[in-house]
Amino acid sequence: MTALLEVTGLSAGYGGVPVIEEIDLAVAEREIAVILGPNGAGKSTLLKTVFALTSRLEGTVRFNGRDIAGLKTSELVPAGISCVPQTRNVFATLTVAENLDIGTYASPPQDKRALRDRVLSLFPDLAAKLNQPAGELSGGQRQMVAMGRALMSAPKLLLLDEPTAGLSPAYLEKIFDLLLDIRDSGVTILMVEQNARQALHIADTGHVLVSGRNYVSDTGRVLLANDDVRRSFLGGRAA
Ligand SMILES: Nc1ncnc2c1ncn2[C@@H]1O[C@H](COP(=O)(O)OP(=O)(O)O)[C@@H](O)[C@H]1O
Ligand SMILES: [Mg+2]
Fold first, then answer.
1. Residue 45, Cα to own-chain centre: how many angstroms?
2. Residues in contact with ligand 1 (CB, 6 Å cut-off)
3. What is the reported pLDDT for 239?
4. Which domains does the chain have, with CATH numbers?
5. Closest ligand 1 atom to the C-alpha of 38?
């Protein structure tokens, strides 16, 4: 099985000081891969480095059979990578439709209308709110707008940083269901998530990061059953 995304020996950080070191990680096509780990472990830095928002110090990043380590973010979007960063950036004063439209700028689709219909079929809640300012929506709905906008570049790989942060349990479940729908629509997902147990239940693979390094990687199922992972990262309770 060839990986859609393959990160090898990746070190990156800020001001030349590494925050993540020698990270190896492979994501197969059409899987959901989740990155777990304590606060400050470097999870966001890893995602940002793949999306060229943080300086890479060492290592390689291959995507879709191509070395992308030197590419800029603006080149990665047309290449098929999209990202929803940790701090939401819906444009509060713009309508839902306008927010979605912005997602097409970096990689204009042939048929914007058809693409929007396809994206909206994943988020029926948004279809009725297209002309409403995004700032008037609930937190969960705003997260859907951010995800919808990321999907408007028709990515092969979607990077998500804590998509359920700050959401109510009901919305949390909804977002996780949506992630499965997005995956089933053919999009590969690499996400950071604090709700580790729920994330591992929907994930094909999980990667635990500690202090900027790989700690353990395995299938979601094996990680849920791993005593050490359970004790240290899942609150100790049985799966
Ligand atoms: N823009 C930045 N400039 C300098 N240091 C940063 C920056 N962003 C994150 N860091 C540092 O990098 C480390 C890892 O942060 P981060 O990748 O956000 O961790 P996580 O997402 O796992 O909580 C932390 O020590 C954090 O303080
Ligand atoms: Mg983070």
1. 12
2. 14, 19, 37, 39-45
3. 46
4. 3-89+151-233 (3.40.50.300)
5. 22
